[in-house]
Amino acid sequence: MLATARPLDTRFRVETPEGIDLLLRPAGLVPRALAFAIDLAIRGLALLALFFLLGALGQFGLGLGAILLFLINWWYMVLFEVLNQGRTPGKQWLGLRVIHDDGTPVGWAASLTRNLLRFVDLLPFAYALGILSCLSHPAFKRLGDIAAGTLVVYRDSATERPALPETEPLPPPFPLSQGEQRALLGFAERREQLSAPRRAELAAILAEPLAVAPEQAEERINRIARGLLGPT
Amino acid sequence: MRLTDASVAIRPRNAWEAIDLGVLLARRHRGLLMTSWAAISLPIFALLSLLLWERPSWALLLFWLLKPAFERLPLYILSRALFGEVPSLGGSLRAWPRLLRPQLLASLTWRCFSPTRSFELPVQQLEGLTGEAHRQRLAVLGRRNSGSATWLTVIGMHLELALWLGLVGLLYLLLPQGVSLEWDWEQLIFAEQHDGLWLEHLSNLLYALVLVFWEPIYVACGFSLYLNRRTQLEAWDIELAFRRLRQRLTGAAYALLLGAALLLAQPAPPAWAEAPVDPQGPLAERLLQQPLTSKAAHDAIQQLLDQPPFENRKTVTRWRFGADAGDEAAADQGDAALVRWLEWLLELFNGGYLVQALEILLWATLVSLLVLLIWRYRDWLQTFAGRLGLPQRRPTTAPSVLFGLEVSPESLPEDVAGSVERLWDEHPREALGLLYRALLSRLLHDLRLPLKASHTEGEVLALVAGLAQDELHRFSRTLTTCWQDLAYGHRRPPAEMKTELCAAWRRLFPAELPA
User: Fold this and answer.
1) Which residue of A has its CA nearest to B152?
2) Minimal C-alpha gap between B283 and chain A (Å)
3) How many domains, chain B?
4) Does residue A209 have a cis bond before it (omega within 30 degrees)?
5) ipTM over 0.95
6) Which of A33, A141, A170, B70 could share a disulfide with A137, CB 3.0–4.6 Å?
């Protein structure tokens, strides 16, 4: 029964009205907890510094401190998320960002909702509900995320141009789908990470369809990949 | 192991995503993982608690040390489930004693404290490596992802604590008020000496329950990290794609033949060019995942376009000339008439009639505006015309008749006093009338009194008084009284008045005396 089920994946597909699939990668508990810990530490340090700074001002400093405590506690996350493309310093550090469920940048309403409901996630103690929700939801949402319709995803980093072996390009001898082209290119790109026997083993799989001897398959695949890449 | 049977999407991920995949994997098999974990760990926990009833902390420590032994079962289940062979609960429980045998001592002692325990467990259990080979293998695998495995363990420790505190807090919140009032924090802390042993065992039990939830996830995360590392090292995703490609190309005989033929010839044109409907093209059905597919949307749009706001069919009835044969001809004629009218208009412009008419119209407008302006400010002009040097108009024209009496100078005789003296005896009325007329005429024309036809005799007297000429005033008063007495009262004036009045007249208006 499970064999027929769709393979598990961490990617979350959002289809836009234009029919374009956006691939989002929701972030799970561990990086989010670390990001939260970083934010907590930053807030703690800021409050400590304020405590010493405002302590010198006496009664006035006490009032000012209360206002700043409120601001830092309730608005730190919201302001950073809305004004900094969904990234608090902790999330920025770990390559995360907050977005709406449909992939659009997070707005005031959603950000306020998810951060005010943080206090539901805190229940009954030490984020127990939030942890349970995050570990049980397929997109790793805590209760605030479910209510606000937001998603914490990994940011896409800029991809580096991969280096392909310098060989004579060869057109593919048979039509290839996009996925198959990617696999051929990936084989050529990732040859540095693979051991030589493993490369030979992988290439030998395609020796028969390519109609070459297994020893020459690797070279042939590299040339086809070069051809697929086109002139550079 | 057959990669084509894998129930997860195999591709190289970053370490955090690999951990996330482990969470999803544990979520899919959660029922089996949690029940099997509970089935082996809870009886042992109960046994330990009973044996060490007096020392709950020791029981907890021993239970904690046994965790690596329990962890082998979820890993076994997950490794089978990954390739679609999910074992039954009974089967996995029966397999557990067999899993325990290899390297149990190492697991329970020094490897128990490794921060990357979850990541190392598959190497030991699934690859069965020992000693030097195990160490080398870990060195290779641990070049990447081991940092994340450490963080996983750190977060896991805090998470166990958080969940345990959450459960304790929940229990405390659910206590009836009466019970909680009796408690004292001091008593709770130092309960060991007294009868609080069951309380410690209760908290131990809560910890065991937390582990039922968390440990399978922890093992699954470590397992998926291990899988990810091997996917990177051995390019499992590429192997999978190559095997599928090979199956596609060699699976069918015609493909083989074609492939062999095409190898010698040119590369084949893309296969999708021959398809009747381009699957990527605009005509292909799209948005199949959404409630509104592209086909449904297209149909709905067509239906809407056939309906009134877009398709305006209406019947228009109007009068036409009888000569018009048909719609087409009528339309043509209408156009022709319009053209003629335009031409006529152009001629008008060129001929200059229209221009002239316009010029006249404009001048007329200007003149009427000026007139209107003067009319509007006529009072102002009247007031200030003198200052502006305009000739002063005579304010009033002297009336020629007052009280039915002719007062124009022309109607009077040359010698008024002589005429009066002559008439006095026979016609006293005419005589007094003449004198009074002559006075009024003099007042009007010589003294320029503004007399009007509506003035009465009394009013005339008052005006005369305003002239401040005593003699004239006295004479006028006497004459008026005599005239009123005679005219309205029919009383003859005394005879001596004749000489008095005539003398006064001659004194007042001597110019009329003949030279």
Assistant:
1) A30
2) 13
3) 2
4) no
5) no
6) A141
